[in-house]
Design brief:
The protein is α/β, with parallel strands linked by helices. 27% of the residues lie in helices and 21% in strands.
Length: 172
Amino acid sequence: MKAIFLDRDGVLNKLINRSGKLQAPYTLLEFELFSGVEEALRIIKFKGYLAVVVTNQPDVKRAWVSRESVELINNEILKRLPIDDIKICYHINEDQCSCRKPAPGMLIDAAKKWGIDLNLSYMVGDRYSDIAAGHVIGCQTILIGDVDSGNQGSFPSPDFRANSLIEAMKFI
């Protein structure tokens, strides 16, 4: 089995500008899929990949959004897209958990659950922390957009770059 691991916010759906900072949507009213996402997911499924969302949602722990709101958005994603699984990390950096990207815990958990060959899989994200999570376990990586430009730090470079999920399909 092979998979495409997808970050949620900034890859599947648009980010919200709050006081000059791009953040995840907090309500269904704020939630909006990017153009081409439905088509990209059809291609992913046609090519025989599992589609697994792996998303950091630290704003729940920060009490900026409720867990129920995050789950409502995830349920909307499951309703509208052929997603096989959603893995969520609610921790913040200070928790030092094994699931919050750049740690690969969510990807490893999904691989165990679904029997995924990580070397045949891809991690697609809009941040270098997404790329690092995929890189450490042997996935090919694709960085979407330029939200995280200039913040590479010590993170590895992506294998590919694209402006959108649909554009990323040419690498898969």
